[in-house]
């Protein structure tokens, strides 16, 4: 039997194509690594029962190795896993208790809840406090009547909105895809596999069958999938509550002759068919509830005013002047404007980071929640946790980008090349690791002086360097392993402060270095051309074309060797000493090269000299 957490772990493993680290899972679920390891044994047994092996390796993580087809099949099996097969922790018990109260007109006793959930009466009494807290957040009341039991009280619209939230919150993208596909593609073979309680299933299937029968592809431009899903659920909830004797308010019948839009006509046709089968009337307010018309007429929300008030309120509670971040205002205003414009067309924003945000930023979440409930109030757009968590993300981004004190690691890059390649490497490293700032680059002889002047934290070098400052030795053109080494040293220097940012970086694949290679190739070509022209202009002899072509080719190859640290060594130079008369020419060549930011070995200068002298001889 799986628990809620092991159920989620199994699903996460099937959704991930790369290994998951136990340490990361521990942080995500807010439990110890020992607890995660214990849970994984249960997950391992479940996969074994399905004929699959859960792989694990130290310093790598845990993963499932199977084809995409098998992965999809396992997800289908897991989705169809009945709620009764999941050990009911408090979250599930609270949900079941609320649903039981919602689907009953009678008082429910603690003993009845204890029997249905197979837990003690004391556990139920403790859970009821959580039930009451949840209902209160939706503007509903848990009535406690001594010796009679418990009953849910509140406005009908709020009760249905809460039911939407509970059902929709249990779904993931895969289940939503199957629901909508069965309607839009008329695919009756796709098994529902719904994590919807038995009390809702019969009504749901009835509605889905009629929607599939009446749906036409021409409706696709008029109705988003989120609208389709909203209609599917709301008609289901409508017939369930009508069967219990609860209407929104009035009993006025819907006049279908006034409905002109194709989308609304489709909706009215579905409702008429379903309600006729159930021997229920098609009421005007039930139609407005399904379309979202009731909520839109309730109150007009001023997105500009609410955005300003939320930012001001949260700024005051957090002690951070978020009002000074124009990007926060524009991004939050855009988000709220879209949300208010669509009214209740979105049942519930899907936010996979909701639990993590609530766990890692509880104070900010509470402050944003208070602000939303204060200024959005108990409207149809009531501040649900998923909605609030998305607002919290805006504030987190603002804090990270604008208000969080930033400490970058100051890096000195040591190489034998000039500023050209060093500049490219600086761009590459800083692009891959935002917390690194290459403040200078120099040769091996200048290390000590630059370190004192710039107060660097770390040295990145193509040579081993003897110093007390941390050194990362890399290839002349840093590759994936080099970037990883620099990143690791950076995290050691910054400490725990870097964990949150760099955890996101570690989850990303390293960007291709093709762009860097292309840029370097262009610079080599341009640099080779510049040096060739400068030397030919400095030594304007009439040369034979074959020597001139060979000379140009040699210069280009010399620049290429220089960029990739493959210059001729000094042995070549010492084995072919220069004549005393060549000194002036050497100085001239060296001056031209240094002017072009090429600080080459003497051996390279000597080789160039041989070409120039031969070209002079052939004049």
Report on the structure:
With about 625 residues, the chain is of the alpha/beta class. It folds into six domains: about 1-85, Arc Repressor Mutant, subunit A; about 90-155, Arc Repressor Mutant, subunit A (Orthogonal Bundle); about 160-300, no CATH class; about 305-405, PTS-regulatory domain, PRD, CATH 1.10.1790; about 410-510, Response regulator (Rossmann fold, 3-Layer(aba) Sandwich); about 515-615. It has 28 helices and ten strands. It has helices spanning about 5-15, 20-30, 35-50, 70-80, 90-100, 110-115, 120-135, 155-170, 175-185, 200-215, 225-245, 260-275, 285-290, 295-300, 305-320, 325-340, 355-360, 360-375, 385-405, 420-430, 445-455, 480-495, 500-505, 515-540, 545-565, 570-575, 585-595, 600-615, and strands spanning about 1-5, 55, 60-65, 85, 140-145, 150-155, 410-415, 435-440, 460, 470-475. The strands form four sheets. A four-stranded parallel β-sheet has the order 8-7-9-10, sandwiched between helices. A two-stranded parallel ribbon has the order 1-4. Strand 5 and strand 6 form a beta hairpin. The radius of gyration is 35 Å and the shape is elongated. About 25% of the residues are buried.
| Strands, count | 10
Mean pLDDT: 79
Share of helical residues: 55-70%
Nearest-angstrom radius of gyration? 35 Å
Strand order of the main beta sheet, please? 8-7-9-10
Short summary of the structure?
The chain has 619 residues and is an alpha/beta fold.
